[in-house]
Amino acid sequence: MIYKKITLKKGKEESLLRFHPWVFSGAIAHIENGIEEGDLVSVYTADSRCIGNGYYQIGSIAVRILTFSEDEINQDFFSKRITEAYKMRKSIGLIREDNNAFRLVHGEGDFLPGLVIDVYGNTAVVQAHAPGMHFARHLIAKALVALSDANIKNVYYKSETTLPYKAQLDPQNDYIIGSFETNIAIENGLKFHVDWLKGQKTGFFVDQRDNRSLLEKYSNGRNVLNMFCYTGGFSFYAMRGGANLVHSVDSSAKAIQLTKDNVELNFPSDSRHEAFAEDAFKFLNDIDNKYDLIILDPPAFAKHKSALRNALIGYRKLNAKAFEKIKSGGIIFTFSCSQAVSREQFRLAVFSAAAQSKRKVRILHQLTQPSDHPINIYHPEGEYLKGLVLYVE
After folding, report:
1. Domain containing 319 — which CATH number?
2. Based on the domain organization, do 152 and 28 belong to the same domain?
């Protein structure tokens, strides 16, 4: 299949020859007439060699490469890629009776840049982060329901807030295939409600699954504070781990209600849990020596490089307050999900907070995203989730 051409400046093909899947606008010498946002294009070197096919979009990342071969981008292409993604998750034991919530496609990590798919039971929630994936949404939906033994019956498309607003695509969140059945999914034997209709991201943060399991092992006999709790994932794991009490805090009253509903699903009428709709910093000010396990999992403080400085200040202030307030012998689980913040920068912000507190702090674990959020070895930018487990004397 011959697509319209984008030609690179001389020498700008080096990253593509190393299979990095992005073409930046500054590397482009010429764009063939008639190319529009979301079109499939072929990328050529200055000496007329075709080195990849992908989707064009306006912006800093101008082309997201789907294939470095001559494969045609059609129904068969999406079916093969999505089938391979499913096989990988099946082969590592992630898809089980007691775990039917997982990320099926993680963008560049599954060689489908600009596409995210999370599965909750019989429903797949699809998010396009690139116009080309928006135009391919029906091909993607067909590939999902055709997956052998996956039993996906419903495909919900949720891209109103993830596509570039300048593209003027006007995406509508709605079911492409099927309809609403149930919003209850299972993670490691624990049940939870997923609000993919109006909730953040695809409705639940499946990327913290492994870290929630680790928290469960540290929760026995502890007083646990789950800050920025969203739908309470860390909270109900802590309860199963034998925590004395679990307090969940989020500024959103809707998130607090979801947390209460999720705790009730797993631990009905359990008096160990309370939830508070309050500002994080205000709540932390009044907790002197009350908790010996604190989870800090805030939303992304820096979605772009321009916000990096303020984000690092925010992480330092937040962690400093936790160091100040936690009991002696306490444990802090602290995270950054900001892709713009590197692992080293986040660790330095936490180090600065520890030094400010003048307490003895030891790193027990360095955490990252789980196996269903794989990192394409040629695209290190795909590593976004950073976490530390700290012991505070």
Report:
1. 3.40.50.150
2. no
| 351, 218: one domain | yes
pLDDT above 90 (res 199):
no
Q: In sequence order, which ranges of the chain are alpha helices (DSSP H)?
A: 14-17, 75-91, 131-135, 137-145, 209-218, 233-240, 253-266, 280-284, 308-325, 343-357
Whether 167 and 310 share a structural domain: no
Quick check: helix, strand or coil at residue 56? strand
Q: Look at the chain and report how many structural domains it folds into.
A: 3
pLDDT at position 302, please?
60
Q: What is the pLDDT of residue 167?
A: 67
Give the pLDDT of residue 177.
Answer: 98
139 and 156 both lie in a single domain: yes
Residue 216, pLDDT > 70, answer: yes
Domain termination site, one of 35, 67, 99: 67
Q: How confident is the model over 111-152, as pLDDT tens digits?
A: 999 999 999 999 999 999 999 999 999 999 999 999 999 999
Task: Answer yes or no: do 108 and 46 share one domain.
Answer: no
46, 67, 88 — which closes off a domain?
A: 67
pLDDT for the residue numbered 166: 64
Give the structural domain span for 122: 75-188
Instruction: Please give the average per-residue pLDDT across 64-93, as a whole number.
Output: 96
Higher pLDDT, 303 or 240: 240
Assess contact for 116 and 103: CB atoms under 8 A: yes
DSSP string, 117-136: EEEETTEEEEEESSHHHHHT
Count CB neighbours of 186 within 10 A: 16
H/E stretch holding 64: strand 61-67
Average pLDDT over the chain reads: 94
Q: Is the pLDDT at 14 greater than 70, yes or no?
A: yes
In a domain, 233, yes or no: yes
Q: For residue 345, which amino acid is it?
A: Q
Contacts 24+ apart (CB under 8 A), 194-201: 194/101, 194/120, 194/231, 195/231, 195/258, 196/120, 196/123, 196/125, 196/156, 196/158, 197/156, 197/173, 199/231, 199/258, 200/230, 200/299, 201/118, 201/127
What 3-state DSSP class applies to 363? strand
- Do 117 and 105 contact (CB within 8 A), yes or no? yes
Q: If you search the block for the tokens 């981008």, which residue do you land on?
A: 73
